[in-house]
Here is the input.
Amino acid sequence: MNQIAKFLKEKGGYQLVESKTLGETIAFALMPYKKILEKQGYIVYLPSELNKLRGCSKEELTALHEIKKRWKGEIYERSFENS
Here is the structure.
């Protein structure tokens, strides 16, 4: 279990976060809480996704969030090419 998952477990399985970058409240959660929080209208980030977002620029984070929000997907990897 990684540090993020341990933290979330200590917090009861999830943590709501007011993101200034994204302009909304998002949820960091363990898998058992994902569907419950999504039904409440939150975009949910699992520990595995949060690890992949380290080092993202504001633009990358915003783009990934919009994609996740629109298609309710999960982030498996991130790759951006400069055009």
In short: The chain is about 45% helix and 15% strand. The mean pLDDT is 89.
